[in-house]
Predict the structure.
Amino acid sequence: MVNKKEPKDQRKPLVVFYIVALAVLVIFNVFVVPFAASRSIEEVDYGTFMTDTESGKIDEVQITTSKILFKLKDSDKIYKTGLMNDTGLVDRLHSSGVKFSSQIIEQSSPFADFLFTWVVPIGIFALVGYFLNRQMQKALGDSSMMFGGNGGLGNFGGVGKSNARVYVKSSDGIKFKDVAGEEEAKDNLKEIVNYLHDPNQYREIGASMPKGVLLVGPPGTGKTMLAKAVAGEANVPFFSMSGSEFVEMFVGMGASKVRDLFRQAKEKAPCIVFIDEIDAIGKKRDNSLSTNDEREQTLNQLLTEMDGFEGNSGVIILAATNRPESLDPALTRPGRFDRRVPVELPDLKGREDILRVHARKIKLSDSIDFNKVARMAAGASGAELANIVNEAALRAVRDNRKFATQSDLEESIEVVIAGYQKKNAILSSKEKLIVSYHEVGHALVAAKQNHTAPVQKITIIPRTSGALGYTMQVEKEGNHYLMSKDELMAEIATLTGGRAAEEVEFGSISTGASNDIEKATKLARQMITRYGMSDEFGMVALENVTNQYLGGDSTLACSPETQTKIDNEVVALVEKQHEKAVQILRENKSKLDEIAKYLYEKETITGEEFMNILDKKPELETKE
Ligand code: ADP
Ligand code: ZN
């Protein structure tokens, strides 16, 4: 259903180009060419001509109906003089041995003349025009170049004031099958595809489609992809613009862009209009001091446009945001973006599917355990998973292999989580020993408690992220939607295990635990303020989450006195788990030593190796 005709606006610059080219050509031929030609011919008076004839200096002559052109014997220069009623002229010329030319000396034929002054330049202009046209078409296809509604040569490259991007045909051919997981979101959007295929079915019964659909979720979960897939499935034009592109330096520019976008969209209906990062313009209009007129005007224009078109006009607006709570309520009321489609981080199955979708693009060995990779990459977004697969392929190339393997994938997860291995970071042997004990401390505390995920890998190879080592735990069976209080406490104990091991072994502490401390504190705080897991406060929300999809910031919602109590509880909670960790490590001191030494030698050990040493019967008993 793609419209073959170019819209007027896009052809306009080309028409202007042709008109200008033709004008230049005419001016050139009428004024410049004759002038240039006359320059090489010198005008002399008739007397001079007669004298030259007498003295026999003339070599060639041509008599036309209006003038006499002649050339002297010793030069190539052409002279010109007027025509006189001179009856004996021809005889005189003849007797002095002058050659009569019929064709003007040194002058090309009228045909060649015409060819060079008109046909060739027009041809050149036409060719230039043709290439310009092709460039424009390409640019439209890429959707990277913008054209303003007010055309003109000066407008190339989107310098103009209104530059809504012209649609991408069927949005790169992305279909629902390219978007792995996200089944609920797809189900929701399928209705829109159906509608775009057959609007009448809906019109007949009197139902109207929502004008706007809001895709909300964390970054990199495929919101843009889903919007493109809707356009791809329905095979309709796809207009896309980012919210931040609307907001310009000058008040009113953004509003004019919104108008332009909707005008183009209505011409192309049915179609999809996608506004990414809509929170850039759709922020709540509040009374804060830093009001932004440009943003408000843009938002008002958007609201007006959305109200302006009929529900069943075939224009569907999809918008994406990861800060839905900051949107202006006017934007989310019925009749505007009244449908909200959550696009969440993928679960285990989703992660596996996304890995498979992206794995199709690279060469892989046959024995890939996608499920295992997906389990290791808990919490990763679709974009991160795509990155992991690509990183694996890059690793294979670096090692001169033709395909990527399981270990490439596993290593690239670590790269994405912790950064590249720092090949030349030299730790002193003392530091290396401290890191070994620290990491084994985490692993041992995790293994000796009930509610923890099994250890997958322990390594003390430094990473570019600054981590000197880490312990990776992987859930046994995929999904984990709920966390019990016991699990959370065990998690805090595990986090403190690193520091605890340093204390138990060396009796001193290092800076290496800062990240652990941060995480443990955050968890403990959440338990008390949000999960209602404190003995003192019970089920009272003491904090509100403000940024659900971007790191989950929260603001305190309680009195200063309560804040002090919260702080005390957090300290007590973490300290209790820390003590538990120290106790676990004291009880298993011999294992701690043994595994730490082993890790110190090997630098990286698997969860299996770890468990083998841990489960081995203590040798002391047999020796004694
Ligand atoms: P968002 O708009 O939500 O920030 P994008 O749609 O731009 O995220 O996704 C970024 C990239 O991540 C995509 O180009 C794609 O390669 C990958 N990706 C994200 N989610 C998925 C998914 N569900 N299936 C396949 N690829 C995905
Ligand atoms: Zn640690």
